[in-house]
Amino acid sequence: MTSKPILFNMTPAELEQFVTGLGEPKFRAKQISEWISRGAPDFSVMKNLPEPLRQKLNDSAQTMPATIDKRLESADKQTVKFLLAMADGQKIETVLMRTSYGNSVCVSGQAGCAMGCKFCASTLLGLHRNLTMNEMIAQVLVAQWELYSGANSRPISQKPNGDPNNNEVSHIVVMGTGEPLQNTENLRGFLEYANSKLGISWRRITVSTCGIVPGIAELTEWARPINLAISLHAPNDTLRSALMPINNKYPIAEVLDAAFANSEKTGRQLMIEYILLETPVGANVNSPDLCTNSDRANLHSPLRNCAPEQAVELAALLRGKNVMVNLIPMNAVAERDFAAPSGNAVHRFQDTLIQSGVHTRIRRERGADIGSACGQLRIK
Ligand code: SAH
Q1: Which residues have a catalytic role annotated?
Q2: 275: which strand partners?
Q3: Is there a contact between 117 and 244 (Cβ–Cβ < 8 Å)?
Q4: pLDDT per residue as tens digits for the range 18-35
Q5: Which of 128, 141, 164, 200 is deepest in the core (most CB within 10 A)?
Q6: Across-strand partners of 64?
């Protein structure tokens, strides 16, 4: 792995010093920094620099603390998944989603994940490490470069924000691998940078958590008007603990209290994520992946969270609050013995929630064909 200096987090003065150290005039620093802010992956793309200088820079420096190892595009070309290699060899995933409301990047906050949720691919190999603030910024820049280099027209500064045809990242969702609220200091640094330097409005940033209560409280204290999403996935503690071990530490009531307090402070609508899943007929309910024997004894077997009674139970937790429930039919994960319920069951669950007075929508999944949909991210 390389130990070349990384230019992207240098101050203007440091960059000038670096450039003059190579025997080049100062103004090159400004040119380089413009390319870096568009996400240039290396120096060869910096067309306004003379070729010998590009060579010299490629030999002596790196633009970013990440390189693209693999790039996968969905059949409809709206979603691109990147496998990125960090300087120490760690690999992570980032997803760019082109949507009707703008360009959204799904950022990972950790390499791997320690949370052990029973339905998710990201946790299968455990946690490797927290990502640094710069490694999170780099993910947005990689997506930015994809948009910039793919668009051949106007310069980036002239593109209107929110225009679906534009070539700027407009939204960030911290919903990649890892638990961002186990890495709050770097997360906050990253989001401050995204807001102040990349111009992404707080209201277009969403952080998703499995329910780390002190982390939610920290965000509340921080008080930026970002959107908070809670991965709830079950309407009671017995089922939630079986699906998500973190619930043993932070049960539903505590998580929701912290989340409602956050939404009251920021004024933003709380998002509740709820995967709809069930154990398929014929599945091995004794699979160690599902849950422990004692959990199983407390549950109806096979495991499911999508019956209409469960929608009623969920509504009772949320009614009267400023929340939107995002229903996510389970995305397939080869090692996990869960499946999405039928389309009818999904709609019945949604209707029951709506009749119980809770705003709900079904999340449109993106990039399932390239393994980039929710819960499918892993190093692949
Ligand atoms: N650790 C954070 C960030 C990950 S966000 C959190 O838990 O919120 C990824 C979202 O995808 C979470 O809501 C997660 O629960 C959901 N997810 C995980 N596995 C999934 C699967 N197989 N199908 C659909 N959604 C899944």
Answers
A1: 93, 374
A2: 328
A3: yes
A4: 999 999 999 999 999 999
A5: 141
A6: none
